[in-house]
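Input for the complex:
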Amino acid sequence: MCTGKRTLLYDFTAEPGNNELTVKEGETITITNPNIGGGWIEAQNSRGEIGLVPEDYIEVKQKIAVAPAPSVGNTSVYSVFSPSRLVSSLFFPVSFSHSLFQASNGNDPWSVWNADPSGGSSNNWASNPEGTQTGKSAAPDPWASVSHGHPQAYQGPADDDEWDDEWDDVKSTGGYAESETGEGGAMQRGGAHATSMKIALNKFPGFSKSGPELYLLCKQLAKGKDRLPIYMGEVGPVWFYPETQLDCVVADPKKGSKMYGLKSYIEYQITPNTTNRPVNHRYKHFDWLYERLLDKFGSAIPIPSLPDKQVTGRFEEEFIKMRMERLQGWMTRMCRHPVVSNSEVFQLFLSYKDEKDWKTGKRKAEKDETVGVMIFSTIEPEASDLDPVEVEQKCEQFSRFTKAMDDGVKEILTVGHEHWKRCTGPLPKEYQRIGKAFQNLSSVFTSSGYQGESTLTDALTAAGKTYEEIAQLVAEQPRKDLHFLMETNNEYKGLLGCFPDTIGVHKAAIDKVKEGDKLVATSKITPQEKVTMAKRLSTMSYALQAEMNHFHSNRIYDYNRVMQLYLEEQVKFYETIAEKLRQAHSQFTTM
Amino acid sequence: MCTGKRTLLYDFTAEPGNNELTVKEGETITITNPNIGGGWIEAQNSRGEIGLVPEDYIEVKQKIAVAPAPSVGNTSVYSVFSPSRLVSSLFFPVSFSHSLFQASNGNDPWSVWNADPSGGSSNNWASNPEGTQTGKSAAPDPWASVSHGHPQAYQGPADDDEWDDEWDDVKSTGGYAESETGEGGAMQRGGAHATSMKIALNKFPGFSKSGPELYLLCKQLAKGKDRLPIYMGEVGPVWFYPETQLDCVVADPKKGSKMYGLKSYIEYQITPNTTNRPVNHRYKHFDWLYERLLDKFGSAIPIPSLPDKQVTGRFEEEFIKMRMERLQGWMTRMCRHPVVSNSEVFQLFLSYKDEKDWKTGKRKAEKDETVGVMIFSTIEPEASDLDPVEVEQKCEQFSRFTKAMDDGVKEILTVGHEHWKRCTGPLPKEYQRIGKAFQNLSSVFTSSGYQGESTLTDALTAAGKTYEEIAQLVAEQPRKDLHFLMETNNEYKGLLGCFPDTIGVHKAAIDKVKEGDKLVATSKITPQEKVTMAKRLSTMSYALQAEMNHFHSNRIYDYNRVMQLYLEEQVKFYETIAEKLRQAHSQFTTM
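Predicted:
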């Protein structure tokens, strides 16, 4: 039980509503309670402020022995998490100290493929001091928020202590789950898909470097209800789409607390259109769902990261509202996906009956073996097999397109962010000054003592006030239109960030099939297995094409919709200003 | 006859269309022709460019002997002008190196009274580097133009050589005219009214320091047609206003040249609504008129400076257009003034029949003795005499108001200038980038190979183009509205800059009258003269009130009009944008 002074190893920014304490690297704090658990300790800074700080952030003089808090097996968790934290702290400090966009899909996965021009643009946001400054203005710019100089992954502990009470059972399943949830969990908060993919592939000893064979060469394919048919639609291969599309509403965030109120959390109410019965989930549950979906479908279907935990707002309400909005966006996208929305784990999340049902379902989902590339074993295309050359062409085309779109999306985000800053910063200030200048001149005129002055002075004052109103309109506008344009593009940025992994699996499979003859020659595989590989590669290609077609149709809908919304609001905006000015104009007279 | 290399003592910026050569202090040039005359020499710079440079700007190794150019008595002129140039170069480099506003009414006359807060604001403009930068953008900002680091007065030579051919006669009238036109002429280009006032008062030996007495104590007042009646109107004392208001159109600038085409000049066509017969005048003629009006009416009526010679534009056409516009503004204001417009010299300027008529009229005007404070001797108020206390109160009130309005006007100019820069600089660039971002994304989408893409991509491209059009609109808008708001306020800034002098004369008179008893006691004046002084002070006060009432009625009209114009254009601007966006919106669809 050690307390006393400690030095901080990293910056840590408190997440609103969690009784956390913001501290700077090198700052000295006094530990007031080392027994919080979950990798947290309570500390007091020089200004006397008390709050929770992640244990790992504190210089270790001697290992802090953490007394298990009630119902929490901290030490195990602690040891589980620290390695991944270390890794991420070594790998990601730079990429993660970027804006939340950057963070939202980890360090730019494209950079692995080739230099990403717009990667730089993202950095601009964070490096730009104005970014935060705008936060002070009428409409704070959520796009300007940056993860505060330490890896997202470090935020892991914020919730992890709360995982455990429900995760002991998982731990006991030994083997991969632990390290996976540990690393995966920690990584996911940074949304580094490459890593999570690796996890999915590593899961099966001996295949760590050769993911695709696991499926290409496996003896028997899945049977029964798990099957995922692919039909030939007008646009080519398509998933099976249900008549009624699943949908849900994320709403009514409620604050709960635990650990004697020392740590609080938000619970969201999710109501699916199927049962119309609300279920409650906390962020960590979404996180759990995300990891399940990623493990199960990640090789075939890009599963976008959850909204970043680091979404920050000046006020807690703002922060909660923002996160909820993004969780809603994420859920909507998952609901819209015919395969994901139809999956058992997703249905469980949306419509579990009670705690028991939930826990049983969770346990089952975590034991699911049809994960990683094995998902392809459930896919059944109705069409005839494709030639490997054609498969490769398709794959190349998709990878080119997704890369190009990623650049385009990033450009819009950069430009939009700049525009947001101008609209909430210098521009309204200028209109305000114009308004003031008119009003000042008006009050000078009032002092003229000349008769018949009032018409002009009243008009001039009105004109001045009008420009002050315009200043207000300008400052508030981004929240009304630019906001959604940014949210949508940010969501697509995250989604596009998943394709390199998904496509990577296919490239690996293509390469393996190319080696076919050599493998036969060296009798690594039988001629029959070579045929099977080619057939299964064709299946993978149908899956990828179905997914791309799904992506395209959604993209076309989403961009039509967001542009309609954006332009609609823009029109209103300019019309309102014109009308105000028309009224101001009517007051001047030169008879 | 000396040629060869010379070093420049000051920067000199060529005035467009005058075959002048821009040179920098310290630069070495080669004199290619020292015999241009009029204080000019022809020189070649290191880049081989040849043009005219003022002789005085060049380091004097040995006095350059100037051979009289045909029809030009240069040496005499030269000697006449150089002293004043020297004076101004010593006194004004700082104040004149400000923006053209600053220059247009010389070094802030208010500063003599008390520290002028907004004086600083004017300086900002010049000191602001962006100022010039905007010159490069779509709509160059005339407000950003600054006199290029050397006193305005130095520009004198640019026209002075052309004065002489018509001024030899004046010179021959000996005495004051020479030094006056010399000093006054040079000073006037800087518009330093304090100085010009002094000139008017200095004109009569012995009264140099006691201007007002000249009138307060003069033996007999002017008779006949010169008289200026003052009536009591609704608003108080008013000048006599003619039924039909004089007006004129300044148009059709034509380029002329002289000295074998080495020096060119612009001739404007002025057509008064009275004769409807156009007369031609060059800038120097306006300048001559200005000086006559200033001498004659300056004590009673603020005569605004001519538009600054240094108005610069990127292109000659722009420069000429701008100067013409401002000469028009100046003439309109003079035409609107019942006293000025009715004066003989003004009528001469507008409607001389031929060269002979013009020259005779000029000579007469220059011999006019009813100048300076003597103008009051022609004023005849119909109302009864005012009490000196009341006179002082009125005077104080006017001086407070004009000072306050000067501040208000300067504020609008500062703010307007900032806004101009934003609208022509960063803002359109941003809209352009938004437009590009949309178009880029559109072209990425086109490459999707997915069918049914075109509706979105067409709409997205159209939206992108729309924002590029908006960028254009934004950049061009200031020329359509802000320009006139700025011009009007700039004009008023110049006008207000004259009041300290006009009011100063009154304050001097008031003080003198206050000394009345003392002067009688010390028998400097007779009791009768004391009574006369009070009576004449009352006359001066009526003149001042009439002038203030004239100013107020014009001001109310001008500001109503310019605000109407400004807001009208602003409304159009925002409506146009709204309409464009509405069209862009209509192309998106989410069926």
